[in-house]
Specification:
Immunoglobulin-like, five-stranded antiparallel beta sheet, 1 helix, 8% helix, disordered N terminus
């Protein structure tokens, strides 16, 4: 155990050093710079989580980049996969093809994780690398922590159901619960490229959101649950006409 902790600490120090030299920033859905940081995610066993991150090209020109996942540790029966630049890959794919990053615009990196039945945490590094210069990289580390109640570290008793039906063609629904501290809550819907499609303000502490998706193009979309401006969980759905 000590050897594992030391190796992860060593990586974090190197990641922070490289991130400072990178031509990229990795941003969360609230536009916060999270490059080189470690993110703690909490979810119930056998549940799923989708993290949405924006990879921002900070140079004055176009760059070609690829995304990579590194499974530092994986709990039994848990799986992970990535989407990058509009394409999604299965659990057996660890590196995406190269995509063009336009200056000042962001590619979207999604990290999908399926919790297994155990109470063991999993750790994954997500990396974006310049295809022409492998030393030009940016990282984040995500620790997936199983929790029986699926409670986030700041103790909001929230929940967000899987969408139904999924795939959908005309109407999509999902249930939510904010808990005792309602605050300012929203559902944000994004397409695979990270463009905001719609947003729903939640006026009740619990309920069902119904989305008219008849005019959406066929494909994969993501919906993110925000509480007081902080993204607490994201999930995905498919439109099929």
């Amino acid at each position: 155990m000590k050897k594992y902790v030391l190796s992860l600490s060593f990586f974090t120090a190197i990641a922070l050093q490289l991130a400072a030299q990178s031509d990229y920033k990795i941003m969360d859905v609230n536009n916060n710079d999270i490059t080189g940081t470690t993110i703690q995610v909490f979810g119930a066993p056998k549940s799923s989580y989708t993290g949405t991150y924006h990879v921002l090209n900070t140079t004055g020109g176009n760059l070609s980049t690829r995304a990579r996942k590194e499974e530092v540790s994986m709990a039994d029966s848990s799986t992970s996969s990535i989407c990058y630049g509009g394409s999604c890959f299965g659990p057996a794919t660890y590196v995406s093809p190269c995509k063009i990053d336009t200056s000042g615009k962001a590619n979207v990196l999604n990290g999908d994780f399926n919790f297994g039945p155990s109470m063991t945490s999993s750790t994954i590094r997500y990396c974006v690398t310049n295809c022409s210069n492998t030393a030009d990289s940016a990282f984040i580390v995500v620790v997936y922590n199983p929790s029986p109640a699926g409670i986030a570290s700041y103790s909001l008793n929230y929940s967000l159901s899987e969408p139904f039906p999924n795939p959908a063609s005309t109407l999509l629904s999902f249930n939510y619960k904010v808990g005792s501290t309602q605050g300012n809550s929203q559902i944000m819907v994004y397409n695979l490229l990270g463009s905001l499609i719609s947003s729903v303000d939640l006026s009740e502490a619990a309920g069902t959101v119904k989305l008219d998706v008849a005019e959406l193009e066929s494909g994969m979309y993501f919906y993110t649950f925000l509480i007081n401006g902080k993204a607490v969980v994201s999930k995905k759905f498919i439109i099929r006409h």
